[in-house]
Description:
The protein is mainly beta.
Amino acid sequence: MKLFNCKEGCDYMLKVNDLQKLYDNGFGIKNISFEIDKGEIVGLVGANGAGKTTMLKCLMQLIDYNGVFKINDKIISNSTFPPIKVGSMLDNSSKITS
């Protein structure tokens, strides 16, 4: 697996390499890699069960995963402690009752 090969002056804020999450019943996500540039606004869109929430939970270190990612030139891995400081609101509308 090739990790980050970037010299000074990188313009990305978030870079993900080979992010994977394996559940007992199979892969939640497999081999996810992408970059988000500084100042870029990004939306995450996909079908139900595609792995959107799983990916976000991995990036927030709420669940175990394989892979490495970088935030503002700092390598973050599953063993990073304390967890990075990230704010989020994960919606689970299926649990809303009237």
